[in-house]
Amino acid sequence: MFKSFTLWKRRSFKKLLSKPGERLTIYTRKNPDSDSLASSLALKRIVEHYNMDASIYYTGTIQNKTLTNVLGDDIINIPALSQSQDGIALVDLLPTELIEEKLNPTIVIGHTLGDKEGIRCAYQDIRTTGTTSSIMIEYLKKLGVAIDNRLATLLFFAIRDKTRALITNLTLPDLESYWFIHRYVDMELLGSLEHPSARLETFEDLSRAINNKTIKGASLFTTVGYVKDSGTIPKVCKYMLDIEGISTALVLAVNTTSIHIYAESKNLELNMKNVLRKAFGEWGEVTGGPFHASISIPLGVFGVVANVEKAKQLLLKSISDSISSQYFYVLGAE
What is the residue range of the signal peptide feature (predicted)? Predict the structure, then answer.
């Protein structure tokens, strides 16, 4: 049974936002997707409704550049999360997911199917919905906060994006929120979000990915080699999934400091976050969810080699062989 934004919870929540002169720092997950960003913006609008200032911060990169342009100054990129003198709200991000950062949040709002025991904060709303956006739509509705077209479109797109256009991972609260918010949507803006323009680098990386692909059954592994911007690999991965007979794909990229891995699957029996954790969890933090996940692994001392032209290809082959063998091994076990 799903929790709801009850009268008691509304009173508790509004009490935290009724402190004149205070600010709220909103942190969303690393490499935030549309759901993380839309729900963070919704919380920012609610906080401002109660005359408090709020700022949204994220780490990593946003894959959909149209999202970045639409959000504009409402979001700020930072190198790392840190404790703030202001109150901290974690949106679509649980304290249990933070390994290196030690934060003391005031508010935690998100959705999860995993362990949420041991979370300590003044206010928390953690549900087993498919999206955090559906939770925030209920907040907007029950608190009577004005919903502009831009916010509505972002929330609407987030539910569509996270549930693959209402096909998978959909819960009743998501469907109810989707129906409520659709009346405010800007259809032209929605079209831009659903069909973002592709950069030239994406097609160059796609060409390398096609040439380097290895296929075993319905699973594909490929590398785009050395890149300046790893932000293209999620889109390359989606193209790989369009290949006939492919249901799961992993794309690898390397820069001078890190190995970047992104994996996605159409196979509902697989949980890609668990797959990457089993394969590479000892090497770094896995982010994402059941259908797509990513991890960045520091190159360490090999970063020096990555700057030496003669050794680059040998290093890339060693990395690719290691990653692909571990990936296919775990998929076989799954």
Answer: none
**Containing domain of residue 127, as a range?**
7-194
Q: In what order do the strands lie in the sheet with 286-288?
A: 214-216, 219-226, 248-254, 258-265, 292-298, 286-288
Give per-residue pLDDT as tens, 52-83.
999 999 988 887 778 888 999 999 998 888 88
Q: In 3D, which of 262, 240, 255, 194 has the Cα closest to residue 30? A: 262
Q: Can you name the residues that pair with 260 across neighbouring β-strands?
A: 253, 296
Share of the chain above pLDDT 70, in %: 89
Alpha helices in 144-181 (DSSP H): 149-162, 172-181
E-strand ranges in 166-305 read: 214-216, 219-226, 248-254, 258-265, 286-288, 292-298
In DSSP terms, 249 is beta-bridged to 220, 264
Q: Is 200 left (phi over 0), alpha (psi -120 to 50) or beta?
A: alpha
Q: What is the per-residue DSSP string for 2-68? A: -----HHHHHHHHHHT--TT-EEEEEE-SS--HHHHHHHHHHHHHHHHTT-EEEEEE-S--S-HHHH
Domain boundary among 155, 171, 194: 194
The pLDDT of residue 305 = 56
Which of 132, 159, 194 lies at the terminal end of a domain, its last residue? Answer: 194
Tokens of 26: 């909103």
> What is the C-alpha separation between 334 and 332, in angstroms, rounded?
5
DSSP code of residue 251: E
Length of the chain: 334
CA angle 187, 189, 192 (to 5 degrees): 110
Read off the CATH number of the domain in which 215 is found: 3.10.310.30
H or E element at residue 87: strand 87-91
